[in-house]
Each structure stands twice: as C-alpha cells, then as structure tokens.
Amino acid sequence: MRGLDGAGLRQLVAQLHPIYRDCFAAPPWSEPAEKIADFPARLARHTSQPGAYGLIAERDGEIVGAIYGWPAPTTLPTANAFDIAVRDAAPPDVADLLVAPALVVAELMVAPAHQGHGLGRELLARQVGDRAAWLATHPDAAAARLYQRAGWERRFSFQVNDRPLAVFTRPAVPSGR
After folding, report:
1. Which end of the chain is more exposed for a tag (fewer CB within 10 A), N or C?
2. Region of 14 on the Ramachandran plot (φ > 0 left; ψ -120 to 50 alpha; else beta)
C-alpha cells in the first residue's frame, strides 16, 4: 500500500476511474453514466479538501483499490446536496461525531476481482488508524457489511437525489489498544 496526498491521488485518476466505474455502475449503486463520467471532477474536488490524503493498493504493478478522505471541518458543511442532506438528517448527538477531530472517509473502492479478500478492510484500517471517522454508503452495499464487521456503527439513513444512504461512524481507538 502506498500513501498519497490529494495531488498524488489526482495524478492517478486514469487508473482509479475504471475501478470506480466497476464498483459503482453495478447494483446496488447503479450510478448513471453521467455520474461515472464525472468521477475525475469529483476526485479533484474531494482531493482538494484541506488535508486530503489516501492510500492505494497495488497487485503486480496495477492499482486494485483506493481509499481517500480528509480531516472533518469544525462544523458540518453545506457546500452541496450531499452535505445539506447529511446536516439535515443527522441527529444532534451524531452530528457531533461528524466534525473535527473526526476523519471523513470519502471513497473506498476495490476492483471487483479483488473484493472479498480483506483488501477493503485493510485499506480502511490503515486510512483511519486510531482516529474517529465517518462515512456514508448505500445501505445495501457489501461495504455496509464490511463496516459493521469492522466495528463501525450505523447511525442514520438519508437520501440524496432519491439515492438511499447510511452514515456509519467509528470512535477513536484509545492508545494502547
């Protein structure tokens, strides 16, 4: 696994885009072609967040998985429909878990041929470390089961543009554990 800052991740967009397509064009996501095509712009926006960083996993010189995110801001953002939906749906006690010092996990993707072998779990564990973190995923995605098995807690559900999503959080892990 290799760690990269936002600029380093943006340089790999050509290798990451097919993995994104293969992960998110299929059910339950079933993202339309225009959203798949928008991945390079979304990657650029995400990886331009202050402190954005991530990891890539390679097998035989080919990128087969990636994760990225950034430190959460001190207040819930309202920059787009996703941010507003999270803010509006989050119960107050959970909203407090979605801001600094938490880490936002924006994307986790593993090429389908490499799923089911622990790679997603390893990427997630290395990205988050002992920090508190949160993420959103489709409630029916295989990743939702991965997060629950890894000790993340499903906190609330919401929708963005008729797409169901669920927020998962993980508390910071005390030192020495």
Report:
1. C
2. alpha
**What are the DSSP calls for 29-52, one per residue?**
T---HHHHHTHHHHHHHHTTSTT-
Mean pLDDT within 83-108: 96
Pairing verdict, β 133-137 and 103-110: parallel
**Does 66 fall in a domain?**
yes
Q: For residue 175, give every residue at least 6 positions away whose Cβ sits within 8 Å of its Cβ, in sequence order, or none.
A: 130
Q: CB-side exposure of 41: number of CA atoms within 13 Å?
A: 5
Name which of 143, 126, 140, 138 is nearest 167 in CA terms: 138
| Rounded-to-integer distance, Cα 99 and Cα 111, Å | 30
Query: What is the total residue count of the chain?
Result: 177
> In angstroms, rounded to a whole number, what is the distance separating the alpha carbons of residues 109 and 140?
15
- What's the number of domains the chain is made of? 1
- The pLDDT tens digits for 103-144 are 999 999 999 999 999 999 999 999 999 999 999 999 999 999
Q: Would you call 118 helix, strand, or coil by DSSP?
A: coil
